């Protein structure tokens, strides 16, 4: 706790709640803070990665942008866990549908996160690590979704280091045959950092584009219309 503020976060110890929502887009963090939280205080503006703490139904909760890709998520989640004492980290992000079962704006909960990243090499493991969500948060999110009448799909997702791939759609076809639901760029690093530190992590995603049909949301829609995902995440930790 002695390294706060960090080079990436000007919050002080105590400014950030034990439960935090992590949208990749800092403007989505701003949207959540302004539309769902009360008594909001902005604690971070470094690098434009906005962070806020407020209250939701009387519960202290924070929300902060985490950026794009596993290196960015790795930095922010590590600092939140080790320097600010965060115990529950819930990614609320966008994803591209791989499975034919998914359509635009569907909500997906990442039970496991496949990856093409070498992020796990730092742990010097004697095999392949399987990044998974914390069951406590996963079970709670599914129950909250049922209570809210929101249909969710739970399963395996892909966290990729690559957005513009040299192979185009071919690599996604290979993940698709293994039942992978969708692709994004952060969850595997979040799950690994949480596992290493013994804290809880979960990714709740909204389908923003369908890779094989070319459908996609606008940037503004990504910031402001994924409210079902946000409301589930806000109610996961009681």
UniProtKB/TrEMBL annotation:
<feature type="active site" description="Proton donor">
    <location>
        <position position="209"/>
    </location>
</feature>
<keyword id="KW-0328">Glycosyltransferase</keyword>
<feature type="binding site" description="in other chain">
    <location>
        <begin position="184"/>
        <end position="186"/>
    </location>
    <ligand>
        <name>a purine D-ribonucleoside</name>
    </ligand>
</feature>
<comment type="subunit">
    <text>Homohexamer; trimer of homodimers.</text>
</comment>
<dbReference type="GO" id="GO:0042278">
    <property type="term" value="P:purine nucleoside metabolic process"/>
</dbReference>
<dbReference type="InterPro" id="IPR004402">
    <property type="entry name" value="DeoD-type"/>
</dbReference>
<dbReference type="InterPro" id="IPR035994">
    <property type="entry name" value="Nucleoside_phosphorylase_sf"/>
</dbReference>
<protein>
    <recommendedName>
        <fullName>Purine nucleoside phosphorylase DeoD-type</fullName>
        <ecNumber>2.4.2.1</ecNumber>
    </recommendedName>
</protein>
<dbReference type="InterPro" id="IPR000845">
    <property type="entry name" value="Nucleoside_phosphorylase_d"/>
</dbReference>
<feature type="binding site" description="in other chain">
    <location>
        <position position="24"/>
    </location>
    <ligand>
        <name>phosphate</name>
    </ligand>
</feature>
<dbReference type="GO" id="GO:0004850">
    <property type="term" value="F:uridine phosphorylase activity"/>
</dbReference>
<dbReference type="GO" id="GO:0005829">
    <property type="term" value="C:cytosol"/>
</dbReference>
<dbReference type="GO" id="GO:0009164">
    <property type="term" value="P:nucleoside catabolic process"/>
</dbReference>
<dbReference type="InterPro" id="IPR018016">
    <property type="entry name" value="Nucleoside_phosphorylase_CS"/>
</dbReference>
<feature type="binding site" description="in other chain">
    <location>
        <begin position="91"/>
        <end position="94"/>
    </location>
    <ligand>
        <name>phosphate</name>
    </ligand>
</feature>
<dbReference type="GO" id="GO:0004731">
    <property type="term" value="F:purine-nucleoside phosphorylase activity"/>
</dbReference>
<comment type="similarity">
    <text>Belongs to the PNP/UDP phosphorylase family.</text>
</comment>
<feature type="site" description="Important for catalytic activity">
    <location>
        <position position="222"/>
    </location>
</feature>
<feature type="binding site" description="in other chain">
    <location>
        <position position="28"/>
    </location>
    <ligand>
        <name>phosphate</name>
    </ligand>
</feature>
<feature type="binding site" description="in other chain">
    <location>
        <begin position="208"/>
        <end position="209"/>
    </location>
    <ligand>
        <name>a purine D-ribonucleoside</name>
    </ligand>
</feature>
<feature type="binding site">
    <location>
        <position position="8"/>
    </location>
    <ligand>
        <name>a purine D-ribonucleoside</name>
    </ligand>
</feature>
<feature type="domain" description="Nucleoside phosphorylase">
    <location>
        <begin position="20"/>
        <end position="237"/>
    </location>
</feature>
<feature type="binding site">
    <location>
        <position position="47"/>
    </location>
    <ligand>
        <name>phosphate</name>
    </ligand>
</feature>
<dbReference type="Pfam" id="PF01048">
    <property type="entry name" value="PNP_UDP_1"/>
</dbReference>
<keyword id="KW-0808">Transferase</keyword>
<comment type="function">
    <text>Catalyzes the reversible phosphorolytic breakdown of the N-glycosidic bond in the beta-(deoxy)ribonucleoside molecules, with the formation of the corresponding free purine bases and pentose-1-phosphate.</text>
</comment>
